[in-house]
């Protein structure tokens, strides 16, 4: 009986230590299905951790060196974000930062994280469910894993570009049943099916692909593990502490809202005393644009943006 007690205590202590900041954003490299795989595991059960998105410095329709984005935002870890049109440089999927829609895309399931650090992946057909409860949203695709099984049907999800179906360098995001987010990069050209199998072996119950090919990037342990061959428009970031996230907030989407307003939203929505701002995102943008602190450099077209994002 006493032996069982100590075993249970040891298990409980191990579970508690898993939530400490020292291991809450952890990088590792391993071989799966004969492929070298780079993995950042983000333990969202640690309430100090934050997963968010950063846009390029000049906003929608622009790009930036990945090294410059990381230098501005100083995350613990980062990977390539969602696809973007190489001519217009507009992302293909929705992006929400600090509860504010900064870009409305046209396709793709999304990694969604609430203010209290609960993560899930929501298919594009249920886009209306991606409401104000989600502090971070990044829509990518196609779906790799759903409900613990491989679920590949890119064409049904609206992905028709033939390049997606060829073997390529890949990036993916997954969510485990233990509420951990997996950020995965593979530098070797592989098929979608092999990537889906890799995500399953890593323990993902849900997983989506992100941008890959020459955009493939991963930053961890203070350096770039994988360097992209092109400039990027958006990056998925992980932070270990509230302080690091607050410092980064003005740089996450500097031309969408005033720096001060976005920093305030980030603080209130995740780490402040209150539950976070309750106004619709477009009213927040309008209010920030009337602020005398500094001008809003870019705003969504009002009618199109409001109808595009239901609340």
Task: Report on the architecture of this protein.
The chain is α+β, with helices and mostly antiparallel strands. The chain has one domain (21-308). The chain has 8 helices and 17 strands. Strand 5 (95-97) and strand 6 (100-103) form a beta hairpin. The radius of gyration is 19 Å and the shape is globular.
Radius of gyration: 19 Å
Question: Uncertain segments of ≥5 residues (pLDDT<50)?
Answer: 1-21, 270-311
Element string (H = helix, E = strand): HHEEEHEEEEEEEEEEHEEEEHHHH
Termini, distance in Å? 54 Å
3D shape:
globular
Q: How many domains is the backbone divided into?
A: 1
Proportion of strand residues: 25-35%
| Main beta sheet strand tally, sense and closure | 7 strands, antiparallel
Report helical residue fraction. Answer: 25-40%
The number of helical segments is 8
Which structural class do the helices and strands define? alpha+beta
Mean pLDDT: 82
Please list the strands of the largest sheet in the order they lie side by side: 1-2-13-12-14-10-11
Record field, number of beta strands: 17
């Amino acid at each position: 009986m006493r032996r069982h007690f100590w075993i249970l205590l040891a298990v409980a202590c191990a579970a508690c230590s898993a939530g400490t900041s020292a291991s809450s954003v952890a990088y590792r490299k391993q071989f799966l299905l004969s492929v070298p795989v780079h993995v950042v595991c983000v333990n969202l059960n640690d309430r100090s951790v934050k997963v968010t998105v950063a846009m390029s410095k000049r906003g929608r329709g622009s790009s930036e060196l990945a090294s410059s984005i990381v230098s501005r935002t100083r995350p613990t870890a980062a990977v390539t974000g969602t696809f973007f049109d190489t001519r217009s440089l507009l992302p293909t999927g929705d992006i929400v930062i600090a509860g504010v829609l900064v870009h409305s895309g046209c396709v793709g399931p999304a990694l969604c994280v609430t203010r209290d650090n609960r993560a899930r992946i929501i298919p594009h057909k249920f886009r209306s469910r991606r409401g104000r409860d989600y502090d971070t949203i990044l829509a990518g695709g196609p779906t790799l894993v759903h409900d613990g099984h491989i679920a590949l049907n890119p064409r049904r999800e609206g992905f028709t570009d033939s390049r997606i179906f060829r073997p390529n360098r890949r990036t993916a995001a997954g969510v485990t049943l233990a509420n951990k987010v997996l950020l995965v990069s593979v530098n070797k050209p592989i098929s979608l099916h092999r990537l889906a199998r890799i995500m399953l072996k890593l323990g993902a119950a849900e997983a989506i692909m992100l941008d890959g090919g020459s955009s493939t990037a991963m930053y961890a342990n203070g350096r770039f593990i994988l360097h992209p061959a092109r400039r990027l428009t958006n990056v998925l970031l992980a932070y270990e502490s509230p302080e690091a996230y607050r410092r980064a907030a003005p740089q996450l989407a500097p031309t969408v809202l005033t720096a001060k307003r976005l920093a305030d939203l980030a603080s209130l929505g995740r780490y402040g005393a209150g539950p976070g701002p309750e106004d619709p995102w477009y009213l927040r943008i309008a209010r920030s644009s009337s602020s005398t602190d500094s001008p809003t450099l870019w705003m969504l077209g009002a009618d199109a943006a409001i109808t595009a994002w239901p609340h």
